[in-house]
Amino acid sequence: MPEINIVGFLLFCIAAVGMTLIITRGNIFAPLRLFISGWSEQIRQRREQRAANTGKSPRCKSCIEWLNDLINCDQCMGFWCGLFCGLLIALPSEGSTLTLCLPLTCLQILFVLFCCGLGGSFLAPLSSNIVDMVFYYKMNALRQLEDREAMIAQRQAELPIDEINELEQNTH
């Protein structure tokens, strides 16, 4: 069974969260997400139209619709990214032998991988919410600064020219 030290654990957390956020929110994957989203919408509309014409209830989602849901959900994608990163951590390194012939060892590895997936599923939305919160506070602070500057400009526009000249002389 591979041992995971604190550095490996932190690397796993950062890698799983980073991979998830790049796939679900990154600009580099935006064209792929838009393409899959459009394709998924076309499939959904055809399925609903077919169901309306035949009177039968629609079948389950297609693989493309499932993929669309996956790449647009931090928690879902976090599970699979955590599983992938856990697999990379659990792979044997050079010089070590990992015996997969023992059933208990296989179950232990599967359990560790499943737990890595669950960890990624927890960490990705948590970090996503933290990023959103920081962005919200940043945007709110910028908005308050803009409002303050607009208020100052409005007050200066309302002041008589003599008072503006006095204020400028006092500040120099």
Question: Describe it for me?
Answer:
It is a single chain. The protein has 172 residues and is mostly helical. It has one domain (6-171). The protein has six helices and no strands. The protein has helices at 6-25, 30-54, 63-71, 74-90, 103-158, 161-171. Helix 1 (6-25) packs antiparallel against helix 4 (74-90) and helix 4 crosses helix 5 (103-158). The longest helix has 56 residues, at 103-158. The mean pLDDT is 80.
Topology:
Blueprint: H1 6-25, H2 30-54, H3 63-71, H4 74-90, H5 103-158, H6 161-171
Q: What's the overall average pLDDT, rounded?
A: 80
DSSP helical segment count? 6
Task: Give the class from helix and strand content and strand pairing.
Answer: mainly alpha
Cα distance spanning the termini: 72 Å
Detail the poorly predicted runs: none
What portion of residues belong to β-strands?
under 5%
Q: Could you describe the largest sheet, including whether it forms a barrel?
A: none
Reading the helices and strands in chain order gives HHHHHH
Q: Nearest-angstrom radius of gyration?
A: 27 Å
Given the C-alpha coordinates, what overall shape results? flat
